[in-house]
Amino acid sequence: MPLPPLPDDAVVLGATASTWREALRVAGGALVSSGAATDAYTDAMIDLVDEHGPYIVISPGLAFAHARPGAAVLRDGLAVVTLASPVSFGHPHNDPVRVVLGLAVAGIGSHLESIGAIANLFNDATVTGRLADATTADEIRSIMGVPA
Question: What b-and-e string marks burial along 18-30, b requiring 16 or more CB atoms within 10 Å of the CB?
Fold first, then answer.
């Protein structure tokens, strides 16, 4: 399964966040702005980190925020947020975070496929830094190989 499109309103470059919760609110807000999810989805992403810890910090500098499919997901969606200043999520090895991805998936079956597709993208250790340094939404899309 290919990654969902990444419209301009789902890309936030140089966002300001002083805590991981604020960083997830920016990512969730981008999913809401793009029409992929409701505010309740943002709350669900934060709740999962509160419950399970910073497991979403999947590699150095990268957080991959998501929650379970449900009524708060309006359609499949992807958001990319780069942070003006890195934020600590409390991960022992991969903090601080410079890039936050948000993923909303409507169907349970496609949820794991989408997560796998994103994980494969970051097998290239340079991707997080290139995303963090990107200056346009088009550059983000080019790095990730996704449509607008």
Answer: eebeebbbbbbbb
Distance CA 9, CA 88 (A): 25
**Catalytic annotation, pick one of 52, 66, 93, 111:** 66
Tell me the two tokens of residue 130. 């290139």
Q: For 33-81, give the DSSP string.
A: HTTSB-HHHHHHHHHHHHHH-STTEEETTEEEEE---STTB-S-EEEEE
Active site residue 66: yes
The tens digit of pLDDT for each residue in 99-142 reads: 999 999 887 766 567 777 787 888 888 999 999 999 999 999 99
